[in-house]
Amino acid sequence: MPLDSQVEPMTFVSRSFKDYLNDEVERLLPEYATIAQLLAQSDGLLVTKVYDVVDYTSKQLKHKLPLVGLSFGCQQLRAPAITFVGGIHGIERIGSQVILSYLHTLVERAKWDSNFKHLLTQVRFNFLPVINPGGMAKGTRANDNGVDLMRNSPVDAKEKVPWLVGGQEFSRRLPWYRGKNGLERENLFLVNFLKTECLPRPFNLVIDCHSGFGLNDRIWIPYAYRRRPPKKVASYFALYQLWQQTYPHNNYIFEPQSKHYITHGDLWDHIAKVVKYEFQKPFLSLTLEMGSWNWVKKRPRQLFSYKGLFNPDVEHRWNRVQRRHLVLFDFLTQATISYLNWLPNKKNKKSLRHSAVNHWYR
Ligand SMILES: [Zn+2]
């Protein structure tokens, strides 16, 4: 399949986000209620657009749910953009909640913090907090069609993948199903959003928030489809060094995803290829994997609930997770604004690549 055969020019749905809300939808997706609340408190600063509406028709879910993007900050295309993504896996709703918490803080700062008001003239913020509303409403990893959105892209792994986990085409009744009809609507929304709202800009950084892997918080760089370094490994390494030098006591593990497993159909691999073929501008995507086993370790009872494997279910721990990533998110925002000061140049690109390969791939 050609890489972009399915990408259509972005159209918006003319109805507003709030038109899709009602008591039942807010019960299924409290994150939508949070978005409505943020819109009300933002004094018109937040721009919300409904990019698509999915008419979910499965037995357990019969609702029309909007695919929504929120933006604020500098509209001009000269400004770089930072994009926060959450809820690709419906069960990992802590990812959505963490970025909505951050958005709450930004909306409040925009009211009184003069430095932050100035910062808003230099950068575009995008938030896509609920990519997979069907999965979130049902409490499943996959979307309402049973497709795992992180196994759904046309990119095939170059190496042997772990059985099932690496993506499978046997059945939607098994986990990690890739789907058979190309990109699902939710993924088309994400890809189209990035193409139209982000890629025309001179620099983009994206962070996609997940949970469920191990005891530590991890920041992953692409690829998932092969073990060899990505084309932009020097840029990823420059960002990693900047983070380590600025926050030496941080306890994230910053590494290639391929260190842990190889998969088919990774969406960020697909987007990296779209960027490579159609846009020459720097675009970096990171995945934040929150170490949810920590929450389980402290509360073994969570082992017996599927939701509990991916989300903290004690209030003080939930609160701690909301605070935990603020420094990282602020850092990534500042790095986006100052991208020209740290991205590799002709002189240091080769040595950065060399260091990256030594550090991550040997
Ligand atoms: Zn995930």
Automatic annotation (TrEMBL):
Pfam families in UniProt: Peptidase_M14
Requisite cofactors: Zn(2+)
InterPro entries attached to this UniProt entry: CARBOXYPEPT_ZN_1 (IPR057246), Peptidase_M14 (IPR000834)
This protein's UniProt keywords: Hydrolase, Metal-binding, Metalloprotease, Protease, Zinc
Domain Peptidase M14 residues, every copy: 19-362
Similarity comment text for this entry: Belongs to the peptidase M14 family.
Protein name stated in the entry: Peptidase M14
Species, as recorded: Thalassotalea insulae
Lineage: Bacteria, Pseudomonadati, Pseudomonadota, Gammaproteobacteria, Alteromonadales
